[in-house]
Specification:
Number of domains: 1
Strand content: 5-15%
Shape: globular
Strand order of the largest sheet: 1-9-8-2-5-3-4
Radius of gyration: 19 Å
Number of strands: 9
Helix content: 40-55%
Mean pLDDT: 91
Distance between the termini: 37 Å
Number of helices: 12
Structural class: alpha/beta
């Protein structure tokens, strides 16, 4: 959870100037977050999102392709409206994530409506630790922070660093807020197993694209998507329950946090628990959540890059 994912393809085409410009924009946003109310900050986020939707360049091409691929039944006008809603959501969420760093634990818990915590308690009762499966949807930072506060043995998150090293330092502070742990770059599998043996939680996102040398192809919105099978492999090895969790923005400064029933590998056949079918099962859970709130998922991510490029060539 937090802004993290297993694997993911890191962009190497970044200049120092771009990194510093983005960091300067972040510093302005951080200043605003301390001066404005959640509602006023959300309005600023809407403006940022609207501007980005007009000037997004390649990212705009990606979101147009992704939405056409995922929602062929929608009209062009409906997809354009959805694309604008997505940019506004992430404009608001980006500023909101900065504001959250100023909140004390009790202040954050007071603005989050939690549903399904009994599923977490059930999963923890097995004594094997718990995987918390989510996606880049809604306010996944809130999902990580609240879960870490409520799980006695704590929460560790699997992360893919941001492309901008200056912003990565700031994001790392948010990930570790309230005591959450972030796995390092090395020995991640061993650290995951250690955390599970302690009876703690491991937050993981598998909705981002990975390279063909890392992933398996599974259906996602009706099309093949390269996805890392690490969750399937470790859940199969440890028997740890997998609890889907989704934090959604309901209003400025207010959130809902939904925990779903744990998914147990032991309930599946040997064939169903293999890498591809099990990863496909997890991705189907994520797809269902995204379909319910499509305006809150990261459609700017180049999830079907291979398909997009092959389509452009044709």
């Amino acid at each position: 959870m937090a802004a993290v994912a297993w694997g993911g393809v890191v962009s190497k085409n970044r200049s120092a100037l771009r990194n510093h410009l983005e960091f300067s924009a972040f510093r302005v946003a951080r200043g605003l977050s301390g001066l404005l109310s959640p509602s006023a900050l959300a309005r600023v986020g809407d403006v940022v999102g609207n501007i980005y939707s007009l000037t997004g360049g390649r990212r705009r091409e990606i979101i147009d392709f992704n939405l056409a691929l995922a929602f062929p039944e929608k009209t062009d006008a409906e997809r354009r409206q959805l694309a604008r809603a997505v940019t506004r959501h992430f404009g608001r969420s980006g500023l909101d994530a900065i504001r959250i760093q100023r909140l004390r634990p009790e202040e954050l818990l007071a603005v989050v409506e939690i549903e399904g915590w009994e599923h977490v308690e059930h999963a923890l009762s097995y004594g094997r630790g718990v995987f918390f499966l989510t996606a880049h949807i809604g306010s996944w930072e809130v999902a990580a922070l609240v879960t870490g506060l409520k799980v006695e043995a704590g929460l560790s998150v699997v992360n893919r660093p941001l492309d901008n090293p200056l912003l990565e330092i700031e994001l790392d502070q948010l990930r570790k807020l309230y005591g959450n742990h972030v796995f390092g770059k090395h020995n991640i599998l061993r650290e995951m197993l250690t955390q599970l043996k302690k009876g703690g939680g491991v937050g993981i996102l598998i909705d981002q694209r990975v390279g063909e040398d890392q992933g398996v192809e599974v259906p996602f919105f009706g099309h093949s998507a390269w996805t890392h099978p690490i969750l399937a492999r470790v859940a199969r090895k440890t028997g740890a329950p997998v609890v889907p969790v989704f934090a959604l923005r309901e209003a400025p400064g207010r959130y809902s946090l939904h925990y779903e029933e744990p998914l147990m590998v032991e309930d599946l056949t040997e064939t169903e628990s293999e890498d591809v079918p099990l990863t496909a099962r997890y991705m189907a859970v994520l797809e269902a959540a995204i379909r319910e709130n499509p305006d809150q998922w990261l459609w700017y991510h180049d999830r079907w890059k291979q398909l997009r490029l092959s389509t452009q060539k044709n």
